# Entry
Amino acid sequence: MAEIKINTRSPIYKKYQQYQLQKVVLDIYVYSGTKTTDRGTRKIRVEKIPTGTNDYVIFEVSEIIREYLEPTLDLPLDSNKGYIKWVELEATIT
# Structure
């Protein structure tokens, strides 16, 4: 899975496209700790259906993610567990 740095004050668009798309359900996880083991439970589920004759939907996720970020600063800064936040998106496309 590709990793990118997210700046939540800038728009982040995620497009899902499929022939005869009916609906996309997007589960968003926001967490801190170890990326591969601390994911926890879903923070929010967002659903979209395409409009008109479009075969795609576009989500703007930065505002959603920002709502779930709580700034913390644990000293000393020798571990990423407290101040690095991970975001994971899982899409179900029908």
